Amino acid sequence: MIRLTKLTDYGIVLLTNMAKDPERVMHNARDLAAEAGIPLPMTSKILKALARVGLLVSHRGVKGGYSLAREPEAITVAQIIGALEGPIAITECTDAESDCQVEASCPVRSNWHRINDAVLQALEGITLAEMTQPFRPALVRLESLLTQRH
What we know:
Largest sheet: 2 strands, antiparallel
Helix content: 40-55%
Radius of gyration: 19 Å
Strand order of the largest sheet: 1-2
């Protein structure tokens, strides 16, 4: 099973909450934790990690907190996952730092790379701005249904 960690799941939730309210530039950890229902220590850890990689800007002081480093349209889900999980790799052989022992004779390695590239491309195609909106499946056109039946 391919699964993101809670840290990454919560990170996407926190960033989405920040992006949903463009009028509110500054967000503090306590408010974000309460809004998202995420424990404050976990929220603080995630916000610090996202600031360390440049997705957030940390502001010190009494009225300090965090703000998005870029517009939500310029932050992709792939960047968020990469920041909290490391490089996106479906299998060990698609990880650039891998030292797979059977890589040279593996019959499926190239296909795993194709799959990894497709997943990465899909995640790069979804922005933080899009994550703030409910998913709207594409409408099915009547013509396409009719042509499939013939």
